[in-house]
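2024-03-11 09:14:02 INFO worker-7 job=invfold-0412 stage=load source=structure_tokens
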């Protein structure tokens, strides 16, 4: 009892000493120039100092108490998360380097993109040909538990860290699927995820192009795919962007330019005028083949930008289900020590002025279902092919 009382007094003494020291230093010359440069008031900095000292002195596992660097990164993450926007976030040097590798198209993990909405960590889309897709993970599945660790209420970036690991290691992910009471468990083995963002094949006289993501190599791969199907005398193109979580904005503009011969692709509106911008497709690059675009609830961000521009310009109809609705612009602000901070700076609107965020895009032909390995069982793809053969190609022949 005496020891507990002694430790409480010690904590009070530490806090009291810090208050006295900081107030005394600030009182000597009033509000100093230094105080005006501080990110928080002297009182709040004192509280942070007291909290750190208490952790270092009293936490039962002293070997787990972080060093200055980890304390600082933790404080930065907490500060940025207070904005209550899952897309505005602080990234430490290791995480920033890892995300840069991911944008180049190769990383280790399970092969699914996740996002956060209303406090839930949701699968935006599984990546084609990866462990997540092979076991049947679907867009909008909510991640509840990973192995024995419950992740409800956890930040999406922390969930990503837990999901990733060394190749050939196993993990069980428990998910809640809409409309089903019981949790679904998925046993997966981590592997190196090599992302080829575009693939093409002929389906009778129709060129089918699957666009999985918007990475640094996507525009070049799409150009090759269009050449491949036109070289095989394709009469039209079905562009499949289902379960495409987006990616780089400049790549989305490149992709749109291969189907739109000029014209507005997307507008951005932010609080700061310098981030207001309208982006246009380049002229002279687009194919003139008839086009149908497939989207679903896993189509987000850059894929919604491209699909929205195609729909607004009446370049081709959309087939599938309503898209995810991620229409916010993030910009990376570099920080010292190779860290960074993504800040949501604007919202996207389609050429006609439609807001994408939290609304999504409604297809011209709403068809339930999803991608399947058997083309004949893919109702959405079959509908897209049917629209091409029965609506677009006959109209094209009439116009000629």
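2024-03-11 09:14:09 INFO worker-7 stage=emit residues=400
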């Amino acid at each position: 009892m005496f020891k507990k009382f002694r430790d409480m007094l010690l904590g009070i003494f530490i806090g009291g000493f810090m208050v006295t020291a900081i107030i005394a230093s600030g009182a000597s010359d009033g509000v100093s120039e230094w105080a005006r440069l501080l990110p928080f008031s002297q009182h709040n900095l004192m509280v942070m100092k007291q909290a750190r000292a208490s952790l270092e002195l009293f936490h039962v596992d002293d070997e787990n108490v972080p060093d200055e660097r980890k304390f600082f990164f933790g404080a930065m993450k907490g500060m940025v998360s207070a904005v209550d926007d899952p897309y505005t976030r602080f990234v430490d040097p290791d995480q920033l380097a890892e995300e840069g590798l991911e944008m180049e198209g190769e990383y280790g993990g399970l092969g699914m993109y996740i996002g956060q909405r209303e406090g839930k960590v949701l699968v935006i889309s599984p990546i084609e040909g990866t462990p997540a897709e092979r076991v049947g993970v679907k867009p909008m599945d909510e991640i509840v538990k990973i192995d024995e660790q419950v992740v409800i209420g956890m930040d999406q970036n922390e969930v990503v860290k837990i999901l990733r690991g060394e190749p050939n290691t196993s993990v069980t992910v428990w998910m809640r699927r809409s409309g089903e009471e019981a949790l679904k468990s998925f046993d997966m083995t981590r592997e190196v995820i090599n992302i080829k963002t575009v693939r093409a094949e002929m389906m009778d006289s129709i060129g089918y192009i699957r666009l999985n993501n918007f990475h640094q190599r996507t525009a070049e791969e799409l150009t090759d795919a269009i050449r491949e199907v036109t070289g095989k005398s394709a009469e039209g193109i079905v562009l499949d962007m289902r379960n495409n979580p987006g990616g780089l904005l400049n790549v989305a503009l490149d992709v749109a330019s291969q189907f739109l011969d000029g014209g507005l692709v997307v507008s951005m509106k932010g609080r700061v005028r310098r981030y207001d911008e309208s982006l246009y497709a380049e002229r002279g690059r687009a194919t003139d083949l008839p086009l149908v675009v497939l989207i679903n609830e896993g189509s987000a961000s850059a894929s919604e930008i491209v699909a929205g521009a195609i729909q607004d310009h009446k370049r081709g109809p959309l087939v599938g289900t309503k898209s995810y609705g991620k229409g916010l612009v993030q910009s990376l602000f570099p920080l010292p020590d190779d860290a960074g901070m993504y800040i949501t700076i604007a919202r996207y609107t389609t050429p006609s002025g439609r807001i994408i965020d939290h609304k999504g895009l409604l297809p011209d032909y709403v068809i339930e279902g999803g991608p399947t390995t058997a083309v004949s069982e893919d109702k959405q793809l079959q509908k897209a092919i049917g629209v091409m053969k029965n609506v677009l190609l006959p109209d094209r022949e009439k116009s000629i």
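2024-03-11 09:14:09 INFO worker-7 stage=report msg="The longest helix spans residues 2-27."
2024-03-11 09:14:10 INFO worker-7 job finished
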